[in-house]
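Same chain as my last thread, 251 residues:
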Amino acid sequence: MDLLHALIALGFIALGAVLQRVAGMGVGMIAAPTLSLLVGPIAGVTLSNVAASVAALILFLMLRRHVDWPRFLRLAPLLIAGSFLGAWAVASLDHGWLEILLGTCILIAIAAALGLQQRFTLTGNSAVYGSGAVAGFMNTTAGVAGPALAVYAVAAKWEQRSWAATLQPIFLLANLTSIGTKALFGAAVPGDVHVPWPVWGAVLLGAPLGILIGSRVARRVDPAKARVLALCIASAGGVLAVVRGVGELVG
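reply #2:
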């Protein structure tokens, strides 16, 4: 069973990394709901944070010349603030409610990214700060920062190449902060949860494997279509998380 879980984790993390290489985001949205179903919502999101950190570091090194550093510096403080609020929520809620929160955050973010991004034009620091805070909170509680930033990027007319490159240091900061704040609140990996070593191996290897594959197909795949695919796959995981959370509360 440990090996099966590791293979499932490896496959979905690699798929997320392929999509992140092509479209700028994907690891957190694909890995978080998958790993949460395998090892529980708290440990699953933390493992997703680890996988997303690995992917973001590799892609940052590859795309660093296109990073928009002024926008990164405006987003960074609120990412950290949102992460502290998210860590408090993770430490305070029981598993059932946390599953529902995780799934709901994913579904709300996806709905916003698919349905609202073309209807508004966002300008000024308030839009940047709001996006940063929401992304930090969602990344810590649900492992998904990308959709909140996608809404801002499209509405603010942020050019795709610069946006995809700038997301990588944002994701790296967001995920390392999420791990750190949850550890500070004692909510990174519960003491009664055992994560098998093969699953840890899959978490560390999935992102490099997916980026390697994604680098070969990036020129042949439309980034917009890859982004929509990532959102659709993540929505299935979000629905499953909500259903399982409701089942735990009812049961």
